[in-house]
Amino acid sequence: MKKRIVVLTLCVFMISIFAGAAIAKNDNNFGQQKSKNTNGQRLVDIDDDWAAEDIEEASIKGFLKGYEDGKFWPNKPVTCLETIVILVRAAGLQDEVDDYDLSDEELMILKKIPDWGKAYVAVALNEGILSEDEMKTFNPNQGAKRYQVCIYMQNVLDEFNIDPDDEEFMEDFIDGELVPLQARKSVRNMVRFGVVNGYPDGSFGPMRVVKRNEIARMVNYLDNICIQNSESYILKGILDEVDYEDDILTLNMTDNENEEWEFDIDEEDDVDIYYDGNKLDFDEDLEDIEVGGAIRILLNENEDPVWVKISAPVEEEDYVLLRGILDAVDFDGDVLSLDVIDSEEEEWEFDIDEEDDVDIYYDGQKLDFDEDLEDIEARGTIRILLNENEDPVWIKIYSPE
């Protein structure tokens, strides 16, 4: 796959998680996992799961993956040991685990830990993800409770020197008194970061055992918002152009940071493509795709697509990308007036002032509203992202050739 790559700042949405934390897996499978799932394992039992995208993303990142039969078992509980394994991987410490040589003393300390997990726990102890005090009561095969997972995640963040403002307090939960005292800072911070939140009934459920689908979402948010250690992520934006020719699907999109991306995908790339929730056959359905709707692409560590999910444009809800020629431009010091002729030969006029908070770019450079607008020349190409009210969100203008 070829694509034009531009500088990207990942825009992560701080969406609250109403399901919490979770993990699970059998010992052998966890012990055999590798740090990166570059093959993009097909998981056959997650299509209808609420956390399907997070499961796929966590799998691609190598934090956790499915079983040998291709199933993920998203609702299976997860143990304390499996939690530690996942967080060690999320912290980027898999190489340390692979190279770790356990001493006789460590083997004694870790005698209650299954062999496949000993190096993970040793690294977690050395890195502060698991404290010596926590190790005294650590039960590797016990289901991990929500408050425990918050503690372990906070320990990971302490290693990255990440701590919210102390004036930020945990939300009031109807069962807040059930959160153990030693876990309240951790729970508060995870809520503060948006990594985990309460349930719709106002409870936090600190004693509830987490599940695999829940930990997939939590660890993705922990990585995307706080650690930013993985090179895999979900790219989100608007589908600008689509073309299917010579057995190659070309997608042009603008992401949420107003950066432009182009992807060329052929059938051999083995990329799953969905349109309005339906998986498309590569050689039959691709011509049905329309531009203007939302697009999400899961990228692996090489920034190649693993899957593409496109939504059909909905005129009253979706944004529209207007393309054309800048016919005339005027800036009187307060208002920027743009006359545009679009690709359908229709005329548009926009009057924009600084309070409209519209990002304006000229030849790729963002302009200051009160300084640079006089540099804009007419007769070049122009692209304007319009919201549902046909108001500009951003404007990209190019000088005439």
Automatic annotation (TrEMBL):
InterPro entries: Cell_Envelope_Struct_Comp, SLH_dom. Residues 38-101, 104-167, 170-233 form the SLH domain. This is SLH domain-containing protein. The lineage of its organism: unclassified sequences, metagenomes, ecological metagenomes.
